[in-house]
Amino acid sequence: MEAHVSERQPRVRLKAEHLGLHFGGVAALTDVSLEVREGEILAIIGPNGAGKTSLLNCISGLYRPQQGRLVFYDRQGNEHNLLKKKPAEIARLGIARSFQNIELFRHMTVLDNLMLGRHVHMQGNIFTCGLYWWRQQKEEIEHRRRVEDVIDFLEIENIRRKPVGTLAYGLQKRVELGRALALDPDILLLDEPMAGMNVEEKEDMARFILDINQERDVTIVLIEHDMGVVMDLSDRVVVLDFGRVIATGTPEEVRQNPLVIQAYLGDEALMEQL
User: Fold this and answer.
1) For residue 220, what are the contacts with CB-CB under 8 A and spacing of at least 6?
2) Domain 9-94+185-202+216-274 homologous superfamily, CATH
3) For residue 4, what is the DSSP state?
4) Domain ranges within the chain, ordered by starting residue
5) Who's near 248: CB < 8 A, 6+ residues apart?
6) Strand boundaries in 179-253, DSSP class E
7) pLDDT tens-digit series, residues 109-161
8) How far apart are CA 149 and CA 151, in angstroms?
9) In the chain, fewer beta carbons within 10 Å around the N or the C end?
């Protein structure tokens, strides 16, 4: 008798169930459910105003949805209700993000900005600094080592001492990616990481995203308007329209979905990319 071997499904790391987010009488998200699977690159796409950034803000704790559940499963399989967590607690669990608009400290150096990305892992305070100086110094050395690893990985050694405000836009986006990566995340939320970039900068960023996913074993949730990038990078795609999920599937399945095509009607450039 021939044995039947089924392909193992990646475990779920993040699950949203029937999320509802409202601002007064305006519904930003309505009955949104999705799963983020371990090791994948999940793209979230949709027309402007579809609720994509609002969804990331709910996951990272910046917004508090009025309905639904939002659960994170850590590497040990423990369940964490994100709706009861503050943003710093969510970051400490292993969920980091970058922002659509660059949120760096422009007067500080690249190195200092990345060191700030380690703050949620720092145990010391003013009292331990005085009482246990040697322990604080050891911790500082370890955080610096992790940041230097990120700097090497993102190939920004030559700008590590430069103030962020003096850098070209594409490099600033790379530094923001580095600050999120400095948290050692299990899940990385990227909100339009390639917005405003030229072709060469987009190619570099796409390479780094793939390397983060494959070499560093980081699960990625990606919002991106460049459909060529989405179709090339993503394992699965979730499509939002007016705050609702209208399609979920592989890039090819989503490309052929009539509801997705209808949502993008009128945007000729995006229709061509789909």
Assistant:
1) 40, 41, 42, 187, 188, 190, 209, 212, 213
2) P-loop containing nucleotide triphosphate hydrolases (3.40.50.300)
3) P
4) 9-94+185-202+216-274, 105-184
5) 34, 236, 237, 238, 239, 254
6) 187-191, 219-223, 236-241, 244-249
7) 999 989 887 776 665 554 444 444 556 666 677 778 889 999 999 999 999 99
8) 5
9) N
